[in-house]
Write a structure and sequence with these properties.
The chain is an all-beta fold and 239 residues long. The protein is built from no helices and 20 strands.
């Protein structure tokens, strides 16, 4: 099992050598996929912005969260077809994502489809930088009977900072963005944009704010989710 690298994020850039840059060319849509059983297939749309052909690789990983750490593991239960292609200049291409596992979806299964634009060795030049795009697309297969997210939050100190922990006792994931922690009128910390997911039946944690600003036990969280904005109480640990 592999710890999920921080570079495996939507449109992560990989620097291969130093110097002048050559722009990457690949675009992928949509940015996430969800299928409700019995649906088992969806498509990703690839587009090459460049005039030259590019080589693309598509891989699927089972996505889990263990003790607050995200992990990716190779799987044969979900496949991408085709797993690789040469995409002509300005061309569009469709990749099918298909669940082939025979076991029924009981709650919600989570995967990541990782799409890489591969470097072209014939175009590499001394003293240049090649920027290669990597997309990591969340893919969910959900039972219609899966329960909604049921997430509780807690806060603890670690190394002078604060760690926000989220535990999801529901079956379905919760997507978190634009988090702010407040204690009364005092702002303890915040994170803009996408913070991450907490998968069903799993727990996650993220650094946020300074431990020096924490006092007492009444902390509230404001955030955005798949269901819109929400507020939540946050339990304080290790005061």
């Amino acid at each position: 099992m592999r710890t999920m690298l921080s570079s495996i994020g939507a449109a992560a850039l990989v620097l291969l050598c130093a110097g002048f840059s050559q722009a990457a060319s690949l675009r992928v849509a949509p940015t996430s996929l969800e299928m409700i059983a019995p649906d088992s297939a969806a498509v990703l749309n690839l587009h090459n912005d460049a005039k030259r052909p590019i080589n693309v690789q598509v891989r699927v990983f089972r996505w889990t969260q263990v003790d607050g750490v995200e992990r990716l593991e190779p799987t044969s239960d979900v496949v991408a077809s085709p797993p690789s292609t040469k995409l002509g200049g300005g061309a569009d291409y469709v990749v099918r994502v298909l669940r082939v596992g025979k076991a029924p979806v009981r709650t919600e299964e989570s995967y990541r489809v990782v799409v890489d634009e591969l470097p072209d060795p014939s175009r590499r030049q001394a003293g240049t930088v090649t920027l290669v795009l990597r997309y990591s697309i969340p893919v969910f297969f959900r039972s219609p009977d899966a329960s909604t997210p049921n997430v509780s939050f807690s806060l603890s100190r670690a190394g002078g900072g604060l760690i926000l922990k989220a535990r999801n006792d529901g079956d379905s994931r919760l997507r978190l963005s634009n988090i702010t922690l407040n204690q009364g009128a005092k702002k303890l910390g915040s994170r803009s944009g996408l913070v991450g997911y907490v998968l069903g039946g799993a727990s996650m944690q993220w650094p946020i704010g300074s431990g020096k600003s924490l006092s007492g036990s009444s902390v509230t969280l404001k955030a955005q989710s798949d269901f819109g904005p929400f507020d939540a109480k946050v339990a304080v640990q290790d005061r």
